[in-house]
Amino acid sequence: MTAAAPNQSILPLARPITTLSGVGPERAGLLARLEIRTIEDLLLHRPRRYEDRRQFRPIAQLQLDEPATTRGTVVALGVKWYQKHTKSVFELILDDGSARLHCRWWNLPFMEKYFAVGDEVIAFGKPVALKPRTMDHPETEVVEDGEENFIHFNRLTPIYPLTEGLPQRWLRSLVWRTLARFEEQVPEPWPELHLAGGTLNLPTRAQAVRMLHFPETVADTEAARRRLALDEFIELQRQIQQRRQNFETRARALPCRGDNHHIKPFLAQLGFKLTEAQTKVLRELRQDLSGPHPMRRLLQGDVGSGKTVVAACCALMALESGYHVALMAPTEVLAEQHFGNFTNWLGPLGIAVELQTGSRKTGEGGSPKSKVQSLKSNVQRQESGTRQSPTLTIGTHALLEAGFAPEHLGLVIIDEQHKFGVAQREQLVRKGHYPHLLVMTATPIPRTLGLTLYGELDVSVIDELPPGRGRIKTFVRTADKLPQVWAFVRDRLAEGRQVYVVYPRVEEAGPNGVKAVTKEFETLQQTLAPFRVGLLHGRLRPKEKEEVMAAFRAREVRALLATSLIEVGVDVPNATIMLIENAELFGLAQLHQLRGRIGRGAHDSYCVLVAAARSKEARTRLQVLEETTDGFHIAEADLKLRGPGELLGQQQSGMPRFRFGDLAADLELIQQARHLAVRLQSGATTIP
Ligand code: ADP
Ligand code: MG
Questions:
Q1: How far is the CA of 306 from the centre of ligand 2 (A)?
Q2: Contact of 295 with 288, CB cutoff 8 Å
Q3: Rounded distance, CA 650 to CA 361, Å?
Q4: Is the sign of the CA dihedral 163, 168, 171, 172 positive or negative?
Q5: Rounded Cα–Cα distance for residues 285 and 269 (Å)
Q6: pLDDT > 50? residue 363
Q7: Is-contact 75 94, C-beta < 8 A?
Q8: Does the C-beta of 571 come closer than 6 Å to ligand 1?
Q9: Radius of gyration (Cα) for the chain, nearest Å?
Q10: What's the angle, vertex CA 39, arms to CA 34 and CA 41, rounded to 5?
Q11: How far is CA 52 from the centre of its chain?
């Protein structure tokens, strides 16, 4: 080792990788591409898979399409060129005495220099043919003589993610040597929790690191992963709880419980009775608003469960108490809809409702503009000394801008929270002096994500839909069935209903029949005539969006062609058909949101998912929606199929990346981590 003096003071595992012998600047550069910079990074470099090299499959016993590891001696090799020397195939023939195996690589002629006749080679791959036995692009490793062979053979051998120029065998040796030197120094991060052995039956962290790289059994690899994942989750939960504790010691709650003088008349004129679930949630909210710390609450409820009314009651509590309220929604369409509803609801009570939106890009291209459009924009009409009468301001991201800074902001409500980043939530809250915060989401969040992403929020759930809703039937259809689908749509329109038709793109149709809404608009005006067709997408001007939505609400426009812009919040009970073309391009959770736009009135509703005929796999995925309307079930399925990024959307910053933790599978570990982090915080460290 060539440890430079300054590094001696650093904890051994935090030392740079270059302090290891054999790691020069060039290799260090390659390792950095794998995000390996310190000794600890190296020890936590997770194998991609393991290869059982205690037993090789004889070449004669290889099965078609079945991945296997085999070994043999190179008996022939060479590159063949074709198409005027622009394409090539490198072929290597292995023989192990039982049979021969042809290994082929296309357009990688330089592979030739890595092998020679007589070399002993290990190959892992899937035979694509048996006459002759052939593997395309197998993973290979040349067996070298040497003392180190015990590292690479006769064991479950780790196969690491690599980068070009970094040999598997070299990296494995490096891990082995580093482990031998530093294993003892892998610290137990939370010794007071006694995680090893005991009730949790986990290895120590040091053991886990060894088992990660050189497991004795397949079970070892999972035990190691679980231990290392638990450490990640504990660390995260500790941060979450620390944040919450800091907040609670600093922030005093504004008294916002209200006295019912608005809520009573509001509920009386509403026209329906709150469901039990809504009432239960309101009790929880009132408790929070009368508590010592500002409310930090997530309200979860499936699409159509009636979160808006709950938000209105919560707003009224703060308004009754003399504080301002801000409500932020992710799209102008939704902000305007809320503005309409809340004006109708609160206007008669003498409460001022204002709207602040800016023309903004909707993620479909176009440049962001920050022109702020403000209706009744007198947010700052503060007369000196006198306090402005409590106002509800509804808006989009425009509320985040500097111009919006009301004094006495008592409550912030964020609708469709999953469309905003965690940072934006905090930005709005900082506008006041620790206002109460209610965030609402209709994306049912799998518990694992909820505990990680919304860990510092208390959670309320509306787990029942209002009564008297028609059923929603869902059908998956291939594009060749569109004529029948349109005939069906026309019949429903003739009965007086309305339809949403959703396309993935705005202007340009894509390859493979991906449709764009503006193009379809032209043809569908004819297909659906005499019924009026409207067009809604993010590139329209706010006024145009407003007009088409107003016409749709007034039932003048009967078919609304849109992008997924209407995914969130839009509420038009007479619309009973949701037709989505190129449905295979959307995530399940997103489709469920879109489907939530229908089934809001007493009529039966129909969701038709039209998918390209070729993508059989996609159609199988879509069938989940045919089978269930349970948003939680769908979100879990989406998480498993597409991972958390898809479920949360691009905008969800603040989501940590895990090396070992798996948000789709580790609910139990995450719950454990949460308990353990509480113990760490409180100093009580015995595990029950
Ligand atoms: P979401 O939870 O998806 O935001 P909304 O708040 O938009 O749902 O509510 C969906 C529809 O249900 C609205 O038209 C709303 O007025 C209506 N609604 C809400 N609560 C009730 C209730 N208790 N009884 C009947 N209808 C209700
Ligand atoms: Mg809503």
A1: 7
A2: yes
A3: 14
A4: positive
A5: 22
A6: no
A7: yes
A8: yes
A9: 31
A10: 40
A11: 34
Cβ of residue 592 lying under 6 Å from some atom of ligand 1? no
Q: Distance between CA 583 and CA 618 in Å, rounded?
A: 9
Residue 96 Cα to ligand 2 middle (Å):
66
563-620 pLDDT, tens digit each = 988 877 788 999 999 999 999 888 888 899 899 899 888 889 999 999 986 777 787 8
Q: Is the pTM of this model over 0.85?
A: no
543: left (phi over 0), alpha (psi -120 to 50) or beta: alpha
Residue 529 one-letter amino acid: A
Structure tokens at 589: 């959770």
pLDDT at 154 > cutoff 50: yes
pLDDT given at position 684: 57
Amino acid at 387: R
**Distance of alpha carbon 434 from alpha carbon 39, whole angstroms:** 43
> How many other C-beta atoms lie within 10 A of the C-beta of residue 667?
17
- Ligand 1: does its nearest atom lie under 6 Å from the Cβ of 308? yes
- Write out the two tokens for 226: 């679980």
In ligand 1, which atom is closest to the CA atom of 303? 3
595 Cβ below 6 A of ligand 1: no
Q: Which of 571, 576, 629 to mutate to test the pocket of ligand 1 (most atoms within 8 A of CB)?
A: 571
Q: What is the rounded distance in angstroms from the CA atom of residue 650 to the CA atom of residue 418?
A: 10
